[in-house]
Amino acid sequence: MKYSLAENAASSLHIALEHFKAFYYNSDEIPMSILDENIKISLSFLENAIELLLKTILVVDDETSIYVEPNCKTIKKAMKKRPKQITLSDILIKDSNVKTITYTDALKQYNTKFCNSDKVYNILTRLGETRNKITHLGIEILEYDEILIIFFNVFDVIYNYLYPQLIKLDSIGDYFISDDFLVTTVHGSKFLFDENFVYNNIVDFFDELLGDCRDYFCAMRVKNPNTKIVDFIELFKIAISDKKFNALCDIYKINVDFSSCEVEDNSYIIDFEFNNGKTDFIISRYLPYYNATAFFDEGGNIAFIVLHSKEEIYIYSEPVSYPETDEPEADEQWVDDMKKGYCEKMNLSKRNILKAFEKFFVRLQSL
Q1: Do 298 and 306 contact (CB within 8 A), yes or no?
Q2: How far apart are CA 263 and CA 120, in angstroms?
Q3: For residue 195, which phi and psi values (nearest 5 degrees)?
Q4: Contacting residues for 61 by C-beta, under 8 A, at least 6 apart
């Protein structure tokens, strides 16, 4: 058996995804012991895949960067004698005395050289810590949604942060961009969908999970009281039922329709219509890493953002966009936006939810 560094990474990711699908799509049908086993295998191989993917990216930039002693005699000798078409890692794979850097060091190097993101660093650090507990000690995570969020966030990192480097790799790049009727996988060409209509390819699988399935993840998080999402839901219901909200609608001559909202799942589509016939809407999107809900207008600009764990609300007075689900997020964009004067931070309360709507009404009238 022989895998290149990149092939080994792709293989581990494939195993992680197959076991993730095995429990994610069947969590209500399989015994708990099988579900737990699939989670364990998937987490373990996902951490291994991330380590190998990071090292695969790093060696393209500097092929000695993944070794503990990059200037040792063995490595210098291998670099002098190797044929041009052979990678340094392919030669050194036979030498058990040459040690590669740890998962943590690979993560630090990648983050420094390529993205400098606290979000990426924290997500992948948590993955490593969770994998170590499962492998060496044991783990108790009381809520299923906490497991799902670990996976969701890591898949986000792979697709939206590692992706630009991965697609350039000749050996595995096709795995991350193939989305035709027949797609490229680690086990050869396969049909786009398997027999259960689950995507066989990485790009469409991540697209669906990070986009269309986001509401499902949010609904799962609502059930966990530690997220405090339910606290916001109750405040929201109180705010829109208050006579002050109706007074705002009268002042700004606007009709508001909440019939498309699924408030109990923290999912909102709010329709607005002015007396002159002009319309707009607000739609929500859950941001899993930040445990936040962002509210956007018809043009994709932020109306307000609720940080559930911190019990804060950022209310926007200027039109500012936010990355789509297939784009990397800037670390805590709202903090920079506040510094630029685009929004203001307030404690989460009924009064400030009403203020968020009033700011939005003012913005609508100015358009």
Answers
A1: no
A2: 30
A3: -65, -20
A4: 113
**Cα 6 versus chain centre, distance:** 23
Q: 5-37 burial string, b = 16+ CB within 10 Å, else e?
A: bbebbbbbbbbbbebbbbbbeeeeeeeeeebee
Q: pTM, whole model, 2 decimals? A: 0.90
How would DSSP label each residue in 128-190?
HHHHHIIIII----S-HHHHHHHHHHHHHHIIIIIHHHHTT-TTTHHHHH--SSEEEETTEEE
Q: In order along the chain (367 residues), what is the average pLDDT of each group of 10 residues? A: 76 93 84 86 95 92 84 79 73 72 95 94 95 72 82 95 82 73 74 73 86 87 94 97 95 93 95 86 96 95 97 96 93 97 97 96 81
Q: Which two tokens stand for residue 259?
A: 């019939």
Map tokens 């810590």 to a residue: 129
DSSP state of 224: -
Q: How far is CA 193 from CA 35, 174, 189, 209, 340, in A?
A: 23, 17, 12, 15, 46
Do residues 293 and 287 make contact, with C-beta atoms less than 8 angstroms apart? yes
β-bridge partners, 315: 304, 344
19 sits in which H/E element: helix 5-24
